[in-house]
Amino acid sequence: MPIPTKIEDLARLEKLLSEPTAHAIETLAKLDGDLLLLGVAGKMGPTLARMARRASDAAGVKRRIIGVARFSDARLETQLQSWGVETIRCDLLEADQLAKLPDAPNVIAMFGMKFGSTGQEARTWAMNCLAPAFVCDKYRKSRIVAFSTGNVYGLTPVARGGSLESDSLNASGDYAMSCVGRERVYEYCSRTYGIPMAILRLNYATEMRYGVLVDIAHQVWAGEPIDLTMGHCNVIWQADANAAALSAFAHLATPPLVLNIAGPEILSVRRVATEFAQRFGKPITFIGTEGADALLSNAQVSHRLFGLPRFNAEQMISWIADWIAKDGATLGKPTHFEVRDGKY
To answer: Is the CB of residue 272 less than 8 Å from the CB of residue 211?
Structure first.
């Protein structure tokens, strides 16, 4: 696939974000049965569902791709249906609604709560721990790929190169602690019910409308000072994270296989901001100093399994700079990657 020099519009972006890898196509070619995506209305869900549809079609496999969410935006439901994805409205904390969901041998669990968790700690724990327990009980005979987050590790020294899957967890704040709880619930259910499972610790998915690079670019464009306190980060092109989720069905285990999903580069916030400033032709100011630690993940294991991400940070910076300069659409949802105390 030729690499575009720029991404012209939303239609081109969403097509690129749903482009499956060869590994994802091969995995879905060998996978039996329908695929259910729980929490499909989030930032990654729509393009992941579309990628699953495209990968299944490319593999010549007839299967239902079913997206489940509360769907507060009816337009998204219509868009998913136009891509060949069936939709079902459901609140996973409502037992009667969950019970009515169709059985499916393959499940991707994407639901959860992060932003707004401060002040809504009880709901955060319910969504991140109770809902997984309910889902595992409902789908105890299925295969499950479940999303988690690199926040479960806490801060790690930058010089170390990122947290490993074997590291002890050191979560800070209700969000990250509830995500540790979520992983423990999934592990318990996997062991108890014999559910083949993978847990994906994502850190951080990025596209034109959302992500750490987008946050930094907008701050530079607006002339805002760049906070260097969280001085380093990982990013991964969202389509590569989507493809990893589908490819993970080839590597499930009981207890769950845990994988970091992140880009191979440790990025300097200062250098990224400076690059955007040069591309925009704008001045830049910094506040704070780089900490010796940050939220960073080492994803070498997933890279060995699925291959390196198709697009690196330099390519994403180029695309994002062009997108913002032409006032491209954004989701208006900052990542708050700079938060160091775990309060989201």
So the answer is: no
Whole-angstrom distance, CA of residue 284 vs CA of residue 264: 27
Rounded to the nearest 10 degrees, how much is the dihedral formed by the CA atoms of 20, 26, 27, 33? Answer: 100
Whether 257 is in a domain gets the answer: yes
Domain-located, residue 304: yes
User: Angle at which helices 238-247 and 45-59 pack, to 10 degrees?
Assistant: 60
Q: Which of 318, 311, 230 is nearest to 264 (CA)?
A: 311
Domain that holds residue 57: 10-205+237-264+295-310
Q: What does the pLDDT look like over 193-242, one tens digit per residue?
A: 999 999 999 999 999 999 999 999 999 999 999 999 999 999 999 999 99
pTM score, two decimals?
A: 0.95
Alpha carbons 95 and 48: distance in angstroms, whole number: 26
> Looking at the domain assignment, is residue 274 inside a domain?
no
Q: What Rg do the C-alpha atoms of the chain give, in angstroms?
A: 19
162 alpha carbon, distance to own chain's centre:
18
**Among 282, 171, 298, which residue's Cα sits nearest to residue 223?**
282
249, 31 contact by CB (below 8 A): yes
| Ramachandran category for residue 131: left, alpha or beta (phi over 0 → left; psi -120 to 50 → alpha) | alpha
Q: Nearest Cα to 25, choosing from 53, 59, 50? A: 59
For residue 196, what is the domain's CATH number? 3.40.50.720
Measure the CA–CA gap between 242 and 24, rounded to whole angstroms. Answer: 9
**108/272 Cα distance (integer angstroms):** 33
Please state the domain count of the chain: 1
Alpha carbons 109 and 45: distance in angstroms, whole number = 10
Residue 276: inside a domain: no
